[in-house]
Amino acid sequence: MSVTVVIADDQALVREGFRMILDAREDIEVVGEASDGAEAVEMAERTRPDVVLMDVRMPDIDGIEATERIVASGVSARIIILTTYDLDEYVFTALRAGASGFLLKDVRPNELAEAVRVVSRGDALLAPTITRRLLDRVSGSLVGRDAPSQRIEDLSEELTERELEILRFVALALSNAEIADRLVISETTVKSHVSAVLRKLGLRDRVQAVVFAYDVGLVRPRGPS
Questions:
Q1: Hey, what long-range contacts does 189-192 have (CB within 8 A, 24 or more apart)?
Q2: In sequence order, which residues have a C-beta less than 8 Å from that of residue 136 and are 6 or more positions away?
Q3: What is the DSSP-derived secondary structure letter of residue 148?
Q4: Beta strands in 35-180 (DSSP E)
Q5: Which residue, 83, 102, 154, 212, is the most exposed by fewest CB within 10 angstroms?
Q6: What is the Cα Rg of the chain in Å?
Q7: Given strand 3-8, what is the order of strands in its sheet?
Q8: Containing structural domain, residue 61
Q9: Based on the domain organization, do 24 and 124 belong to the same domain?
Q10: From CA 2, how far away is CA 117, in angstroms rounded?
């Protein structure tokens, strides 16, 4: 079954370029285009895509507000924010709004297609140039919920030892397949554990799980190399 995608960007040439890249993949289908945020929300509600590629800067309703509206509407689409601006405030605002991924517009065609696949599976996605700075600055800023009262020691009361281990690997941006390989268990088992972690901690997706893990100090950013 193909991954369905809606492309939202106010530049027609950008939309056409993304469509050509994605439609060339057998497992991805572009089901709609939008030229502004309002149209993106309407298109997402009407087509119910798996993924929305959302530009940040659009007229009237921008990509951040459109993302908030889509999430609030109950549409289950995963949203990838696309922008030419490598700025921290966009990362934090986009993730707060409910985005599941963040990429710069200079992403290569193969990387764009793979990003769509990754996010459609429910995995977190952040551009490599942004991930390090995001995690280094995330302390005290938990996306989508109040700062947690739990300390690391308290997590053991909510999560099993295996679930804590899984959460650490999720925070290191490992995929289910990579976690399964490290722990010598099936991907299905990993997926089940991840779902349990999200449910127990009241987190929406893996992006929030990453931020949560760093926020409570379960995993800490590495020092400069």
A1: 190/166
A2: 221
A3: P
A4: 51-55, 78-83, 101-104, 125-126
A5: 154
A6: 17
A7: 28-34, 3-8, 51-55, 78-83, 101-104, 125-126
A8: 3-136
A9: yes
A10: 10
21 token code pair: 């890249």
- Residues 34, 43 contacting (CB under 8 angstroms): yes
Structure tokens at 184: 């010598």
Nearest residue to 53 (alpha-carbon basis) of 7, 20, 4 = 7
Domain count, the chain: 2
**Count of CB atoms situated within 10 Å of the CB of 221:** 15
Q: Are 117 and 170 in a shared domain?
A: no
Closest C-alpha to 224, from 155, 87, 132, 144? 132
SS3 (DSSP) at 143? coil
pTM over 0.85: no
pLDDT, one tens digit per residue, over 141-160 is 444 444 444 566 778 788 99
Alpha carbons within 13 angstroms on the beta-carbon side of residue 71 total: 20
Single-letter amino acid code for the residue at 106: D
Same domain, 97 and 37: yes
* Contact yes or no for 10/35 (Cβ under 8 A): yes
Q: At what angle do helices 187-201 and 161-171 cross, to 10 degrees?
A: 90
Q: pLDDT tens digit string along 4-40? A: 999 999 999 999 999 999 999 999 999 999 999 999 9
pLDDT in tens, 69-124: 999 998 989 999 888 876 656 777 777 778 888 888 888 999 999 999 988 887 76
The SS3 of residue 5 is: strand
Q: What share of the chain is helix, strand, coil (3-state, %, to 5)?
A: 50, 15, 35
